[in-house]
Design a protein that fits this description.
There is one protein chain. The chain is an alpha+beta fold and 224 residues long. The chain has six helices and nine strands. The chain is globular.
């Protein structure tokens, strides 16, 4: 990749960090973001404050973790990010890890977040909770990789959340959706047992979304 391309990749990571801070998904340095383009991965440096993070706080490594661009040490969760990027069949992928408050709270009491709203299907279905392991370890990376199998987001027990997408922006949208779902679940649980969509109801949602091109803008259909 050219220097210009790497600058764009680093810039997209920095922009995503700023939005994560604005949306209150992170406090201070509690999180990390990465974006892959081919064999290069732009990733936040360890100890970088999301709200004030600049492009210089985003380093570039190869898929083996060797530093390519930047003067700072990558995040302690480098192995987690690289493991997820290597699994992606696409040349471009992104990972967002946060300590979002409600997601983190739910990670301490749930083994799985059931499908309580049809938008949860955008994340692939029930959201799994990866078992606890010390931050920065291969054990944690392995747990998260399994929890994300077939999913766009997962909770990390007593830790936070992780989400993936084709771009940093999309991965962040998945993190925001997960935080909203956890908030709905928490609020519903305070007054009763949340109803869960069964498999037939979930399948109906998928069919309706395909038929109606849900989530896309388009001109109005002409009357037959």
């Amino acid at each position: 990749m050219s220097g210009t391309d790497l600058a764009g990749l680093r810039g997209s990571v920095a922009d995503t960090c700023h939005r994560a801070a604005t949306e209150r998904l992170v406090v201070g340095t509690a999180g990390n973001v990465s974006a892959r383009d081919g064999d290069r991965v732009a990733i936040t440096a360890t100890g970088a404050d999301f709200a004030s993070l600049g492009e210089e706080h985003v380093v570039v490594v190869d898929l083996d973790g060797r530093l390519v661009r930047g003067d700072l040490e990558p995040t302690s969760e480098l192995d987690l990010h690289l493991g997820l990027h290597r699994l992606s069949s696409e040349q471009r992928s992104a990972v967002v890890h946060t300590h979002a408050p409600v997601s983190t709270a739910m990670s301490t009491v749930l083994e799985e977040l059931p499908v309580i709203h049809y938008q949860q299907l955008l994340l692939g279905g029930p959201v799994r909770v990866a078992p606890y392991a010390t931050f920065g370890t291969q054990a944690l990376a392995d747990h998260v990789r399994r929890a994300l199998d077939g999913r766009q987001a997962a909770l990390m027990a007593n830790h936070g959340s992780v989400s993936v997408g084709a771009t940093p922006g999309q991965a962040l949208e998945h993190a925001l959706l997960l935080e909203w779902l956890c908030t709905v679940y928490r609020d519903a649980s305070a007054v009763g047992t949340p109803a869960v969509l069964d498999q037939e109801q979930q399948d109906d949602v998928v069919r309706a979304a395909i038929e109606r091109k849900y989530g896309t803008t388009r001109p109005p259909q002409e009357n037959a």
